[in-house]
Known about the structure:
Blueprint (H helix, E strand, L loop, with lengths): L1 H57 L6 H16 L3 H23 L2 H5 L1 H36 L3 H7 L13 H4 L7
Amino acid sequence: MKITWIVLGVAALVALFLISMYNSLVGLRNQVKNAWSQIDVQLKRRYDLIPNLIETVKGYVKHESETLTTITKARATAMSAGSVGDKARAEGALTDAVNKFLVVAESYPDLKANQNFLALQEELRSTENKIAFSRQSYNDQVMFYNNKLEMFPSSLIAGAFGFKAEESFKVESEAERQAPKVQF
């Protein structure tokens, strides 16, 4: 009788341990999904700002239509990207296009003095900072989750229940890896 209780007690402890580990994996997976949602919110904000910025600039830079077309195409590609890797590549191209666009805009003194342009430019800078923070948070969550998937004994539970590793948001563009040049 005593041995039966001991066996039942050990079985209950093992079951509680397995349940706890499974719940931990589910929680981490949901944190990764939430972190991705935060990136998505900021990207949506950026996507909404870009057309307003383009409209403000159009009247000043009529002969720069290629730049405007490039940024519009990059925005459309980024909005339709699916996987994290595709999204990262598309976002890199969009960032490059926005940066080139802002460089072109800098050569128009009347535009640089336009209050709408300045406000939109500041909103875009703020959004870019929020996107960078959200990417960092997402990558941190992915790292915690992927570590848990690979570490023993949680790797056994992860494998048994079909948990899959998540992809980090990586910088694909060489231009984004470069330090910006500051000239006075």
